Amino acid sequence: MLSNLSRLLTYLTGLLYTILGFLLFFLPEQFAPAFAWKVTPFMTMTIGGWCIGNAWLAWITARRWQWSVVYSALLYLWLFGVGELLVLFNFRDKLVLAHPIAWLYLLTLVVNAITAVVGFIDWIRIRPKLASSNREFSTAQSTATIAFVLFVGFLGLYGSNAQIGVPGTNGGIFPEVLGRTKFARRKRVYRRARVKRTRPPTPKPGPSIAVRPTSATSPPTWPSRSSSVSETSRAG
Fold this sequence. Notes:
The structure is a single chain. This protein is an all-alpha fold and about 240 residues long. The protein has two domains: about 1-135; about 135-195, no CATH class. The protein has eight helices and no strands. The protein has helices spanning about 5-25, 30, 40-65, 65-90, 100-125, 140-160, 185-200, 225-235. The protein is globular and about 45 Å long.
């Protein structure tokens, strides 16, 4: 089988997916606005669901750790991590890493990709045997598996190249309208928020108060003659 380092990384990948998955699945309303891009609570819950699935698959794979039994699950985990990390790299200038949940998502994918690289190097170096004592698939099982792979592959290719408004993006299949995420709009929102925090508060307008000039250039004001006479008579 592969090295102990590869097994440890698989356990670590499962742990990170467990934490991320439970946070996104059970608290979608809180983490949807703070995710790495604009997502709805339903989409956040969906991401949490497949994170929990990856966590279980990584844990059960590392626990069994027999190549002839877990090679297909390991291959899925490796391809998933590398593929998701390539997507993030392709849109790296559009990510919004303004919250710990977004950094946790990025860290999980990086660890997943490192696990894939280490595991692939181990496979080249060790070349574990693929012999299995389990009985082979029947013709019907093999046909159903191939059909499932082709169908899911078609959905992946279609979704990767679909434009806004084409069949399948208007809520007919997925329960929400799908479209390209508005990264630029989100950046403008965060930029305005940062400017607002650094800008001094503007004083609110209040009632105008007339202030008598008291500068040295203003001429002194003397009491009038009539007021002086009245004050003198009042004093007498």
